Amino acid sequence: MQGLGYGSSRKSQQGRQSRSRSARHTRAAKCSQISVSSCSTSSYTSSDEDGYSSSYSEVSQAAGKVGAGPRLEKDEVQHFEWRAGLQMNSRYVVSKFLGDGTFGRVLQAKDCKRNRQVAIKIIRNVDKYTRNAMREAEILQDIRAADPKQCHGCVRLHETFFHEADGERLFCLVCEALGMSLYDLLKQNHYRGLWMQDIQSISKQCLQALRFLHADLNLTHTDLKLENVLLRSSEAPAPSKFPREEFWQSQQSSPSSSRRTAGSYVRPVCTEIKLIDFGNATYELEHHSSIINTRQYRAPEVILSLGWNELSDLWSIGCIVSELYTGELLFRTHESLEHLALMQQAVQRFPHSLLQKAGQNRNDRFVVKDTHSTWRLRWPEGALSESSSSKVQQQQSLHEMVQKRHRSLADFTESLLILDPTKRPSARRALEHVFLTEKFSD
């Protein structure tokens, strides 16, 4: 993905923006009839992604992965019954199962017309899932129209069709086949981080994709996480060594670590990535749901109900970059106030202006005035338990999580995790950070 047209100026993008504006307005008009909040949490997602490695967002959630939703029991959902050799839409021959989710089932197939492998996402015959899948398909069509040469790192939708089976008419999405997710890569490596060179490459590509989505389409992804960033190549990672083994082992005594035992280590043969799962992506002119993102990647302005825009995606990227280095979720929590307290401990104290806005919204669940009438987090008195309070106290700062020679990575992450969204950089501005051009040997 690198080097393919990412250096264009804002002026050169204006032509593409004007061409896509009418599509955005049409899309906003259509989607205003469908409440985003009424859709399933993971929505449809970009079908092929699931395909690449059975790790796509919804598939990984159904498998009960760290930071994902509840585990899905096999007998809870009736899925489309398939068999090897099944022909769909007169051109696709199904070859294998890739994964299940609450939305439906993902299968790999050969496109006999184009002689290529694809992933087909068969949506369950449930109105809200079908409606949301159709919405995401339209978003992916907008992305494809704005990026015909596939330069901007977003999954590609090939087509959609309906499949008749057992008296049901099932909506299907056909997408390109990709490789494993970054989550599966970390999992395979026993939750050790990536090489610095690989983190640098992936971070740059994620920001380049966001620059395209935000500037050209006025579209916010709203669900960026490791499960939704996939390697472009399906080639198996190559055996390697982990360059920060000793440091990683020393960090295993930290409260947030899972004390995992090291094993074999692999490294991607190619670090080109693509973003997937646009099921909850939101255009600037659309209704903005009050809650977005998977918990651990959710920006503070969302938790504090202060409203959000495309800069919430930058916060999510900051969480991803940290996780790619440490192998651990930056904010391992399932409770909002504790989450805010962890942010304050890892990044910086919340600015008074931000908490004041939350207070004016009568959000006293999270903020309180002290004796000097200054707004602050309702912490530690709001902690649900002593263990929660202790957990926050022991949270490391961003710079404590990295080796000294990797200080620029901590600086980069810190620049994305600015608590006040009005001071957070755009994707374009974030691409100028020195970390992305520094030379690393590991």
TrEMBL record:
ATP binds at residue 121. Residues 18-28 have a biased composition (Basic residues). Residues 92-436 form the Protein kinase domain. It holds the Pfam family Pkinase. InterPro entries: CLK_kinases, Kinase-like_dom_sf, Prot_kinase_dom, Protein_kinase_ATP_BS, Ser/Thr_kinase_AS. Residues 7-17, 29-51, 249-258 have a biased composition (Low complexity). Transmembrane segments: none annotated. The keyword Nucleotidyltransferase does not apply. It comes from the Eukaryota. SUPFAM superfamilies: Protein kinase-like (PK-like) (SSF56112). GO terms for cellular component: nucleus. Residues 1-51, 243-262 are annotated as: Disordered. GO terms for molecular function: ATP binding; protein serine/threonine kinase activity. Keywords: ATP-binding, Kinase, Nucleotide-binding, Serine/threonine-protein kinase, Transferase. Belongs to the protein kinase superfamily. This is AFC2 protein. It comes from Symbiodinium pilosum. The gene is AFC2.
